[in-house]
Amino acid sequence: MTQADTGVAVTGVGLVTPAGADEHAFWAGLCAGHSVARRCDELAGLSVDFACPVDGLDLDAAVGGRSVWRMARFVKLALIAARQAVADAGLSPGDWDASRVGVVLGVGVGGVSVLVDNLRKLDDAGPEAVSPLLVPMMIPNAAAGELAIELRAQGPSLAPATACASGATAIAVARDLLTRGRCDVVVAGGSESALAPLVVAAFAKMGALSTRTGDPAGASRPFATDRDGFVIGEGAAVLVLERTADACARGGHPRALLTGVGSSTDAHHPTAPTPDGRGAQWAVEAALREAGWAPREVDHINAHGTSTPLNDAMETALISRLFPHRPSVTAPKGVVGHTLAASGAIEAVATVLTLEQGIVPPIANLDALPVGFALDCVTKEPRRQSVERAVSHSFGFGGHNVALAFQRV
Asked: 321 by DSSP, 3-state: which?
């Protein structure tokens, strides 16, 4: 039997990003290739006062219902994305066997704004002012729990936290739940909303953020010679995954095949990657082995591409060594910023859309590659390319590496 008969399919996608609040708006923004970073009033006075927020969407109105008051922002983002994905898959919670449906939602930070607000109340008015909902709103697994309630999903509900690889880790875990026969449907992805001044100040203090305060829209510059750090963003993306045969049997329409996943750990440093990319390469090689692909068969790389000096140099070394045939490379963070735990899931959706559309979006703000960066980066405008096989990279603080191999249906 072929991978298409036995593998795992993506049957639905949904997302809320700084570039758009559904897949069509997101894709248009990504293909336009212009960063959406802007100054944020809530960050005024910080050394870095800009970010990539989700604008133009009333989250409370979009979520609706009487329970919205108990949800932190990252939960609302996840819920909106999940509803889109389930609808896109043509599924209905009223029709499925709830015990066979899982939720895996990666989150890195959780409800940090809720925590900060309640700490201020504690300092100003004492313990009686602290909300009894602080803990259930703050904890990172709140999104997975609320999604399970919304979808009436009674299979495993998990919240992997592998920093900026969390969304990709969630997709990898979902794949395992399906191939092991534990679930028939898994709703998986990542969500993050950490634009609180405390978090932004902390990232700035450690030197991770771009300091281009005079040009926020030009600050996120993956793989550029003059890159100086990432631009923090927020958002969520969710994919519905099913065994391909099951999806086809119910009349579903697979949008792409998830043919392989791989993960590894650098075991090198709390924040810095292994300089030569060997740790990350193990994850990519594992995904290729599982997919049954030789490296030369990969047409396209959706890079982690944070715009930090260390990550982009490491990732360039990895790609150049493993893929000397120079597949096309894109990096969505140039447009939407670094959405932390959501980034791996957002970039997985971007990879699915590239396979479907035959278009590779450009990397924003990339004018010149450094000497020695032998990559085929797509720049300036989208490139028409028939992509059959693609790999999406995700890396996180702590040395977490995840690679997802997707194939066109």
From this structure: helix
Q: Using CA atoms, how far apart are residues 218 and 334, in angstroms rounded to an integer?
A: 9
Buried (b) or exposed (e) across 304-334, using 16+ Cβ within 10 A? bbbbbeebbbbbbbbbeebbeeebbbbbbbb
Q: CA-CA distances (angstroms) from residue 401 to 130, 164, 197, 201? A: 38, 9, 28, 26
For the chain, report the end-to-end CA distance as a whole number of angstroms: 15
Quote the percentage of the chain above a pLDDT of 70. Answer: 99
Query: What would the pLDDT profile of 289-308 be if each residue is shown by its tens digit?
Result: 999 999 999 999 999 999 99
Gap between the Cα atoms of 403 and 393, Å rounded: 5
66 pLDDT tier (thresholds 50, 70, 90): confident
CB 230 within 8 A of CB 333: yes
H or E stretch covering 400: strand 400-407
Q: Which residues are catalytic?
A: 164, 304, 338
- Can you give the pTM of this predicted structure? 0.97
Percent of the chain past pLDDT 90, that is, above it, reads 96
> How far is it, in rounded angstroms, from Cα 270 to Cα 139?
22
Residues ≥6 apart with Cβ < 8 Å to 97: 184
Token digits of residue 357? 């559309």
Asked if the model's pLDDT at residue 51 lies above 80, the reply is yes
Helix (H, G, I), strand (E, B) or coil at 318: helix
Alpha carbon distance 119, 198 (integer Å): 12
DSSP sequence for 17-62: BTTBSSHHHHHHHHHHT----EE-GGGTTSSS-EEB---S--HHHH
263-267 long-range CB contacts below 8 Å, 24 or more apart? 263/169, 263/172, 263/400, 263/401, 263/402, 263/403, 264/401, 265/398, 265/399, 265/400, 265/401, 266/399, 266/401, 267/399
Whole-angstrom distance, CA of residue 222 vs CA of residue 311: 9
Q: What is the pLDDT of residue 2?
A: 46
> What is the sign, positive or negative, of the torsion defined by CA atoms of 74, 196, 43, 367?
negative
**Mean pLDDT, residues 157-183 taken together:** 98
